[in-house]
Structure to design on (261 residues):
């Protein structure tokens, strides 16, 4: 059982002519936001149900995670997302997903709820539902994290800036993260890409942050650095956030095959 007495939906996604490798990665999707900017622009469904080339954002993430050693996929949705809840319940998957249904005040609180529902996690890769990236880059990102068990955390970064309030990421020569800043005071080329891989020590800091009143993911990341958690930056060529209706076209152009007209 999950918070508020909600049960996890057990379902699975069928991939034609694909072999699903289920190994040991835990994934979490933050899908509890209201998508208010999209709604004001006329998009009536929850943000995770935005489609790129006829594939919903939430389905795309689930599919990619399942192709990258997913053992468990956890998703948090808000209490008003009945259409999204119904969609997730009706998916036909080859592995279980767990759904926590709870409205939260921030992405960090969503992470807090997900991790408290799964207190024994040794590691997790989590992202918000609106991050759009190249699948091959994500595969390399996960392989890097899996291949470096001493890393306490690995954060996706990109030099492509389309966020209205980017979080700048300062790194050392070996890509260790030394600071997260709201202004580019260190002249770094990188901003946060919104994809986070965390191991036990970093995961434990989520409770610490929320219990001390931290309410934003960027402030949680700053706290990780302040607490001596070793974080490595992993560059992606580009990550697009779907916050506005216009971003849907931007994301589709980004994902368009190179040979397409």
């Amino acid at each position: 059982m999950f918070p508020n007495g909600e049960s996890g939906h057990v379902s699975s996604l069928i991939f034609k002519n694909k072999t699903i490798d289920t190994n040991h990665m835990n994934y979490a999707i933050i899908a509890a936001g209201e998508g208010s900017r999209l709604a004001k622009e006329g998009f009536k469904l929850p943000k995770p149900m935005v489609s790129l080339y006829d594939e919903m954002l939430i389905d795309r993430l689930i599919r990619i995670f399942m192709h990258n050693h997913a053992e468990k996929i956890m998703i948090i949705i808000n209490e008003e997302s009945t259409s999204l809840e119904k969609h997730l319940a009706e998916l036909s998957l080859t592995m279980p997903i767990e759904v926590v249904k709870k409205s939260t005040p921030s992405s960090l609180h969503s992470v807090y709820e997900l991790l408290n529902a799964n207190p024994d996690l040794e590691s997790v890769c989590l992202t918000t539902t609106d991050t759009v990236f190249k699948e091959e880059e994500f595969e390399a990102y996960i392989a890097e994290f899996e291949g470096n068990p001493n890393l306490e955390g690995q954060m996706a970064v990109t030099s492509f800036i389309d966020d209205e309030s980017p979080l700048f990421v300062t790194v050392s020569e070996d890509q260790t993260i030394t600071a997260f800043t709201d202004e580019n005071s260190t002249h770094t080329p990188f901003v946060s890409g919104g994809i986070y891989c965390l191991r036990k020590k970093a995961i434990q800091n989520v409770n610490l942050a929320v219990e001390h009143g931290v309410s934003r993911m960027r402030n949680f990341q700053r706290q990780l650095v302040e607490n001596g958690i070793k974080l490595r930056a992993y560059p992606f060529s580009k990550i697009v956030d779907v916050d506005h209706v216009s971003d849907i076209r931007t994301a589709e152009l980004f994902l368009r095959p190179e040979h397409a007209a």
